[in-house]
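Rather than argue in generalities, we reproduce a single protein record, letters for residues, whole numbers for local backbone shapes, just as it appears below:
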Amino acid sequence: MDAPVTLLCYSGCGTCRKAEKWLKEKGIAYNYRPIKEENPSEEELSGWIVKSGLPVAKFFNTSGQAYREKNMKEKLKTCSQEALVAILAEDGMMVKRPILLTDEQVLVGFDEKRWADLLF
């Protein structure tokens, strides 16, 4: 049976490892999805953006190499949401992580208080 929570992570990301450790310490079962190998689709991302209540810009990994190489800081100012979602769907390393998914909510980045508020 699937866990009620899915965690999208990159194994080389320290924040992802911290989030995963936190879930384990709290005894929360979760499905692990490697974001680099199982990149989110445009459809998934569009749904997550709506559920999260966040602007699409918050889904970008602004500290990543791909973000800088593609000059995303400027593109965020001029591209449509559809174009930005397509860019995110092309490369899992472009997506901010970890992402915590439940049926009702999507949290981007690891914030212990927000995660606890959602899960407890």
Observations:
- The mean pLDDT is 94.
- The radius of gyration is 14 Å.
- Residues 14-25 form the longest helix (12 residues).
